[in-house]
Amino acid sequence: MSKFNIKYLKPFKNIYVLVLIVFVVWMLFFDAHSWLFHHELNGDINELEYQKEHYRNEMAKDNKAIKELSTDEGIERTARETYYMKKPNEDIFIIEYEDSIPKHKKDE
């Protein structure tokens, strides 16, 4: 057993190897520019890029809605469909299908 231990511990007797190991451990875990810190920052960057893309898509949808509402026909259609507004002397019938009505629990 002692020869086995000596065989694997021999490189660690060299001062340069010890300094290199300490330097690598320090740079990976403890330094201000460590690998762990950069890994967290890269995760934050990916999250922010995802949010940026999401907000760009939302802006595109909003711009499309603004274009639609810039015309009189678009305003009238939105008022009729969303807010159930009507012209004078006009009747509106709202048709609800059975599958669109929420089902109540038996306990209520």
Task: Write up what this structure looks like.
The chain is mainly alpha-helical and 108 residues long. It contains four helices and no strands. The protein has helices at 2-9, 15-30, 35-69, 72-83.
Radius of gyration: 34 Å
The termini sit apart by 76 Å
The helicity comes to 55-70%
N-to-C series of helices and strands: HHHH
Stretches where pLDDT is under 50 for at least 5 consecutive residues are none
Main attributes of the structure:
single chain; 108 residues; mainly alpha; 4 helices
Summed up:
By secondary structure, the protein is an all-alpha fold. It contains four helices and no strands.
What layout of secondary structure does this protein have?
Elements: H1 2-9, H2 15-30, H3 35-69, H4 72-83
